[in-house]
């Protein structure tokens, strides 16, 4: 091969190699750019999903304290008479805080109030109508003493925890007696029922505490 052709050949080879190198570099750079872009997109996508999940969780409705079976009335939650019922609420909830009503299941006491103008002691039909119980639901009336005896007079002597809580339940009973007129207990439902430790305030509103009870 002549010298001039050899030089041209070497130059051409170098040009091709240089072009391939530049192309390869550009390809690597482009690949890195695409990879980086995909990486940023993945981060943003994950962040968006996390934000959506968090938002959905914040808007989720709280679970009920206990199930309401078909035909069983839910406990009333209205508090419509202003400061009078609100003051009883603070006293009753403070007395019941941390306590449960024991049966075959244990459920906490929950405050309830229904605006009314009751001037006579409550009877079962009147109370059932006030809370919207269906006509098919049985309503049993108990005395406050009898309903709370399982936590005060009839506590298992071998149950150290139950014996320790007797003064708390005694104070709960006294709070109901001191706060409300015509105290009584209405249990609404069959084996699984809602027991209302209730009475009236000076305006005739029906106020008290309620707990779910299972007695088979």
Q: How would you characterize this protein structure?
A:
The protein is an alpha+beta fold and 216 residues long. 48% of the residues lie in helices and 19% in strands. The protein contains 5 helices and 7 strands. It has a 5-stranded antiparallel beta sheet. Strands 1-2 form a two-stranded antiparallel sheet. A hairpin with a 3-residue loop joins strand 1 and strand 2 (106-108). Helix 2 packs antiparallel against helix 5 (160-179). It is globular, with a radius of gyration of 37 Å. It starts with a helix and ends with a strand. The relative contact order is 0.15.
Percent of sequence in beta strands: 15-25%
What is the helix/strand order?
HHEEEHEHHEEE
Number of strands: 7
Q: What is the overall number of helices?
A: 5
- The assigned structural class equals alpha+beta
Report how far apart the termini are: 110 Å
The largest sheet, given as strand count, sense and whether it forms a barrel, is: 5 strands, antiparallel
